[in-house]
Design brief:
Layout (H helix, E strand, L loop, with lengths): L1 H10 L3 E4 L6 H13 L3 E4 L11 H4 L2 H8 L2 H6 L2 H16 L16 H15 L1
Parallel strand pairs: 1-2
Length: 127
């Protein structure tokens, strides 16, 4: 974090992608505030690549628990993407994030369902 803050001061701005895998919510709020005080932009990578992830710091976030509880069917045709985006939006607002990194799933191979889930996240993100 010290290196990040030093670089932001030297550059006179920039952006910082916060990792919910490495930081608890209170830590992210503090870091985001420090980043903004330097004229830089905080961003949040939700790290919603795999619903069966087990990293304790990541899975303790409320938005992540919402994501993990969604079935593929709910993400495809139900309220899953909307629910995850709403929960993630609450954290983004607490951090003062103005531009958003949307959730994105890993896939091998890419399928029509994979595209559909991402279209749902894009639509929910616009709201």
């Amino acid at each position: 974090m010290d290196h990040t803050m030093t670089l932001l001061k030297e550059w006179g701005g920039g952006g910082v992608i916060l990792s919910p895998r490495d930081l608890e919510e209170s830590q992210m709020i503090r870091v985001a505030s420090a980043v903004k005080s330097l004229g830089a932009e905080p961003l949040l990578d939700p790290q919603c690549y795999l619903r069966d992830a087990d990293h304790a710091r990541l899975t303790n976030h409320r938005y992540w628990q919402t994501y993990q509880a969604c079935s593929t069917a709910t993400l495809l045709g139900g309220s899953g993407a909307r629910d995850v985006s709403a929960s993630l939006g609450m954290l983004n607002r607490a951090l003062g994030v103005r531009r958003h990194i949307l959730p994105g799933l890993l896939a091998q191979p890419i399928s029509e369902d994979w595209f559909l889930v991402h279209e749902r996240f894009i639509d929910a993100g616009r709201r």
